[in-house]
Amino acid sequence: MGLQVAPHSPARRLLATVVVPPPAAADADTLSPHSLQATVAAFEATRVDAATLVEPPRENAAEVLAAGIADITNSMVESFKLNEVLRMILETMFRALHFRRIVFCLRDPKTETLTGRFGLGEDAAAVAAQFKVPLRGGSDLFALVCAKGADTLISDATVASIEAKLPARYRTGVKAPAFLLLPLAIKGAPFALIYADKAEPGRHRAGEKELSLLRTLRNQAVMAFRQST
Fold first, then answer.
1. For residue 27, what pLDDT is reported?
2. Cβ–Cβ under 8 Å, residues 61 and 196
3. Mean pLDDT lowest among 1-10, 24-33, 38-47, 216-225
4. Tell me, what's the pLDDT at 224?
5. Distance CA 78, CA 162 (A)
6. Alpha carbons 9 and 152: distance in angstroms, whole number
7. Sign of the alpha-carbon torsion through 37, 42, 48, 49
8. Would you place residue 36 in the very low, low, confident or very high pLDDT band (cuts 50, 70, 90)?
9. Contacts 24+ apart (CB under 8 A), 110-116
10. DSSP labels for the chain?
11. CATH number of 104-229
12. Are residues 66 and 213 in contact, defined by beta-carbon separation less than 8 angstroms?
């Protein structure tokens, strides 16, 4: 209409309309479906099934263990690094049964003691430093298990009769309510120990199939030591 308005005036701002063209098909929004609100809604909808994620079905645990055994077998066909194989074994156990932590102990020839070397999970390094299992003259549960070479599953370590047999260092520094011990031996002589624990008593749900696969993984660790010497 030929109207003249001063710059920056209220009338000028009213006339300065902005036309936004509609988005093309190629510019369709692909991020909105993955927004935080959508994620929260999905979480709320499946909250009742969260317990199954914490404690997976036995079939799933067995599948993870079996797949790990196959991978480790393949890695040991040719030359391999002992530390890498041991870490693979611990990672397989850790993931399959959702342990809180897992620690590998190895014999110190100077002291004839199994000492924690490395681990995975919550405070694994600090917990590994607590492990000092005597191979001679020890009378606590860990020493007896290693001397006998007996795979041991303690589902409730808070029972008074069990707690009284635990090493003093363990009772004060670790004190896990449930744990698994898998000693390693060559020709009857113990030289290492795999320790894994849970945060609550009674949470070790491994059945015979899972325990058998855990023993296979332990035996693979023994084989790895034999082949590396």
1. 45
2. no
3. 38-47
4. 96
5. 43
6. 85
7. negative
8. very low
9. 112/136, 114/146, 114/190, 114/192, 114/193
10. ------TTSHHHHHH---PPPPPPGGG---SGGGSHHHHHHHHHHTGGGHHHHHS--HHHHHHHHHHHHHHHHHHTSS---HHHHHHHHHHHHHHHHT-SEEEEEEEETTTTEEEEEEEEETTHHHHHTT-EEESSS--SHHHHHHHHT--EEES-TTSHHHHTTS-HHHHHHT--SEEEEEEEEETTEEEEEEEEEESSTT-----HHHHHHHHHHHHHHHHHHHHH-
11. 3.30.450.40
12. yes
- Rounded to a whole number of angstroms, the CA Rg of the chain reads 29
- What are residue 113's DSSP bridge partners? 108, 134
Residue in the structure block whose two tokens are 């199994």: 114
Ranges of each domain in the chain: 104-229
pLDDT at 71: 96
Question: What residues does 67 pair with on adjacent strands?
Answer: none
pLDDT at 89 over 90: yes
Whose tokens are 């698994």? That residue is 180
Residue-wise pLDDT tens digits, 130-158: 999 999 988 999 999 999 999 999 999 99
- Whether pLDDT at 192 is above 80: yes
- Mean pLDDT across 185-197: 96
